[in-house]
């Protein structure tokens, strides 16, 4: 490599090895923001992708988001068929999410790709932070349109929209709003965060709803109901268990972090523990799980397995992490966020496995172009209907 700046190369390799200090990380981002170093960093990245053998020696790749999320090192598997969504020639959008503050799109403009572009009549913008709050009296508030500040008062509870766009409940003294039930709901292409009266935080994914009392005062437990997908950071309160009810089960915790996926179009409700412990119960079945485990409940059976947490909480972090997901499950995640209907041609196999990692902030065509480069499937987008073809 010619005209290499020693410090840039040093920082890049420390970045790849997960050894940057916070000061060095900022220094590296400063270089990345300088157009004069774009080609050099671009070349360093290209060399890393060319040297696959070096990748396998890195520390489990877990710390290396750049390569763990984008590069699927299990390509030798022949069954089921892999769909590697972002190969070397098409990783620009994915890498841009790694060094967000730098705004760099590596390989943009200097890579040639003969793959035909996705047939797009009208491109689809990504989803947004938005939701609808339904108060106990039936009043509906579109949070996208509401100004920051106080939205409502209910029996001693003040409901506000914060400057960073989250819903916050503040319980005043002598509040008695336990019977005031609120519902926070998101449509396709929407996500929102709420801080409940007990201080617990809940992130709602697209096409989801959370039902909860405006105050937990005078209640023996903190009970909420979830439809769709939510990520919970539960405030500790040993005297008042936190219970999440879905269509087929209940999850009981005292204070922990976990994700529940209860979409009706998924084969099972998936409860994934990030921190602490939870008890999942359905009928006469009960099971405790530990961090890193996911319990799948299909209505008749519990199955527990170790999972990659990054695949589960990607949506909360504004990402699609689709590594080793069934292709159709990956497409359901994409469809909810972009509010589209996916139609499969009969020739598209059922057993394909996806791979790849990309921001949820890009337009739909960027994601589809990346997937299509795998040459396993093709797309045709007409309005809000996406056709998947072999």
From TrEMBL:
Residue span(s) of domain Protein FecR C-terminal: 320-388
Ranges of residues in domain FecR protein: 183-279
Residue stretches spanning the membrane: 89-107
GO MF annotation list: sigma factor antagonist activity
Signal peptide: none
Pfam families to which the protein is assigned, alphabetical: FecR, FecR_C
UniProt keyword list: Membrane, Transmembrane, Transmembrane helix
Protein name (record): FecR protein
Organism of origin: Pedobacter insulae
């Amino acid at each position: 490599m010619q005209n290499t700046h020693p410090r840039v190369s040093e920082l890049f390799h420390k970045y790849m090895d997960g050894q940057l200090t916070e000061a060095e990380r900022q220094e590296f981002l400063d270089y990345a923001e300088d157009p004069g170093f774009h080609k050099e960093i671009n070349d360093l990245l290209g060399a890393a992708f060319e040297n696959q053998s070096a990748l396998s020696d890195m520390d489990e790749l877990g710390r290396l988001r750049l390569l763990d999320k984008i590069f699927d090192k299990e390509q030798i598997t022949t069954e089921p068929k892999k769909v590697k969504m972002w190969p070397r020639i098409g990783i620009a959008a994915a890498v841009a999410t790694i060094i967000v503050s730098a705004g760099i799109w590596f390989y943009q403009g200097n890579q040639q790709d003969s793959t035909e572009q996705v047939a797009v009549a009208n491109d689809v913008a990504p989803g947004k932070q938005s939701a609808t709050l339904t108060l106990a009296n039936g009043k509906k508030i579109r949070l996208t349109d509401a100004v920051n500040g106080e939205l409502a008062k209910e029996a001693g509870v003040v409901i506000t929209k914060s400057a960073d766009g989250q819903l916050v409940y503040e319980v005043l003294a002598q509040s008695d709003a336990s019977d005031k039930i609120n519902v926070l709901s998101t449509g396709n292409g929407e996500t929102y965060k709420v801080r409940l009266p007990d201080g617990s935080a809940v992130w709602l994914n697209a096409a989801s709803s959370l039902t909860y009392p405006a105050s937990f005062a005078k209640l023996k437990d903190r009970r909420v109901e979830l439809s769709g997908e939510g990520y919970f950071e539960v405030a500790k309160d040993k005297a008042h268990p936190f219970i999440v009810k879905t269509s087929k089960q209940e999850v009981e915790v005292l204070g922990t972090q976990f994700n529940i996926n209860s979409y009706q179009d998924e084969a099972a409700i998936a409860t994934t523990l990030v921190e602490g412990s939870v008890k999942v119960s359905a009928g006469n079945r009960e099971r405790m799980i530990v961090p890193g485990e996911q319990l799948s409940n299909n209505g008749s059976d519990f199955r527990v397995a170790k999972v990659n947490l990054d695949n589960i909480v990607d949506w909360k972090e504004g990402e699609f992490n689709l590594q080793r997901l069934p292709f159709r499950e990956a497409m359901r995640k994409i469809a909810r966020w972009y509010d589209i209907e996916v139609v499969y041609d009969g020739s598209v196999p059922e057993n394909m496995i996806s791979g790849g990692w990309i921001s949820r902030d890009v337009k739909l065509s960027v994601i589809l172009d990346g997937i299509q480069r795998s040459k396993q499937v093709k797309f045709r987008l007409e309005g809000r209907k996406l056709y998947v073809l072999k």
